[in-house]
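Structural prep section.
Before we set up the soaks we want a predicted structure of the protein with MTE in place, mainly to decide which crystallisation condition to try first. Input record follows.
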Amino acid sequence: MANIHIHPGWLLPEREVTPEFVYWNRRAFLRAVGMGAAALGLGGCGPRLGGPAERVQGDGAKAASDVAAMEPKDPLDTIPPTPTLDLYPAVRDPRFELDRPVTDRIVAATHNNFYEFLTDKKGVWRHTGPFRARPWTVEIAGLAEHTGTYDVADLEREFGLEERLYRFRCVEAWAIAVPWTGFPLRKLIAKAQPLSAAHYVRFVSFLRPDEAIGQRTQSWYPWPYYEGLRLDEAMNELAFVATGIYGAPLPKQHGAPIRIALPWKYGFKGPKSIVRVEFVRGQPRTFWNDLATDEYGFYSNINPDVPHPRWSQKTEEVVGTGERRPTLLFNGYGEWVGQLYDAKLLTYRS
Ligand SMILES: Nc1nc2c(c(=O)[nH]1)N[C@H]1C(S)=C(S)[C@@H](COP(=O)(O)O)O[C@H]1N2
Ligand SMILES: [Mo]
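Run finished without errors. Recording the tokens verbatim:
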């Protein structure tokens, strides 16, 4: 395929990867060609990356060998050194029950969307070696009384940790069910004390091209990853800040050391490895909506009756089992979140 010219050789051939991966790389290639030869190296968003990214552009072979030298031995060898290990495993909150078995831990740890590293889900964990996920701080910024920078370990101790069994549904129509460890997002919001002018919350993931090979080699994505919620959605009891999974701190491929989990929304609404939580007045832009406005809405509530323009959302594949199940409105969490939304919002791709 033509797009191989803009990829380092270590990427898998198309037949082994997902349709989303193929689609996005092809689209990026077409865009790059349209912009001329200079764009082949830097893509449409090169200037938004810092100097280091530009210096290593095109040096895929060196980058690949660095990664090989630091490659984790197995998919759980990616849990960073954690000073709060004594808090794990946390007590499970019995309110959250599953309608299916918990996904096998290794299956979940080897089926990841984390484009900062790799677009092939199975291989993400192998490329996380250089990523230093602890110690880690999160900045609380924007329209709030208590802005500042907080260590993740301090937040874990301040809020305490609990375990919740949540279903998880990707917009690509696959699903898992996992025990997250963490704390409700509303606890962080209460600490921040947003001002009355704050109507939305915005999240930003890390930007470290030196540690994340996908940020170096896939410069057409507008790194860092960014997402957002309406403030009342963020305050909902279900909105969760995860610092762990399966009774242990998060492995890097799941978004160590801190990510967002929103079981009623498609997975891309929950950013991984976040560095900033910002309170803002207006609806923030989001990474996937900026890439394809007509495909990935701001709300993106799970809804079997609103198809993705390129596939149906009626059913989902239960990862690791071969089973298909019907998709449920709000992923079955309507009693928690249904009151947040106007009926009209559920009739189109919002
Ligand atoms: N920073 C960042 N966050 C992200 C993504 C990503 O590529 N980068 N992918 C999203 C998508 S599409 C999904 S389905 C989930 C996957 O989470 P998991 O690999 O832990 O299952 O992370 C979401 N958060
Ligand atoms: Mo996803």
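Observations: The two ends are 34 Å apart (CA to CA).
Flagged for discussion at group meeting.
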